[in-house]
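Appendix B. Raw example, untouched.
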Amino acid sequence: MDDTRSDRQLPPGVPRGVWDYTQADFIASDYDRYFENHGLMKYDMEVVKQFAPEAGRVLDLGCGTGRAILELANSQRPGIAVDLSQRMLELVRTKATAANKPVCCVRANLVELDFLPDDSIEYAVCLFSTLGMIKTQRARQVMLDQVARVLTPSGHLVLHVHNRWFNLYDPGGPWWLFGSLMRAPFFKDLEVGDKYYAYRGINNFYLHVFSKREISRLLRMAGLRVAKWIPLNAACDGVLAQPNRLESLRASGWIMICKRV
């Protein structure tokens, strides 16, 4: 099942570590068990269900094994599940068939969504910091531009990202943050907020973590407006207490409800 490619053959915006992660069968096969008790995966679905339209097409960007799309899709809300992992999509397809859910599975890069028509999606989700797995600001902007293009004028995007400044509270986090700020100006292939680390057997997994100002700018440039910010607590399983107190530093991340401008 693994799709082995050289670095030059990788899709736009997909770093080596993320490619290896999406192509590893063991990641997909163990995905549901591994994240079974993760607080964010429970809380973000509570948020998503509140903003699901009564009818319309649903797009799940980086669908994993289908937890969001299978929750939302029904006879009035046909779903499109997009992921780079063929094995993940096979699991989604099997679950959708068993549950009689109208879900179309598409293996695609989130930076290349040209197969979707303009104004065709009423509801899109991009959860669990999937946007942060896209490398380079330019590629992330292209992805958000594409989402804005395919949303209907009344459509919504629910997006989650991690907060860069929350690393101040992690062991070793302040040193990483200082190093990121100092090194990025001198390395062409490194941006402030880029992290490389060992994760679930992938030695060079990549994740970009955002400041609130950065993600606000990207969304604004894409023509998306944040209708609601939900700052997350340290466990990612609920809203940050007293969000008016230095939210930009204390939130572990944000779930954002976005609309087209």
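End of appendix B.
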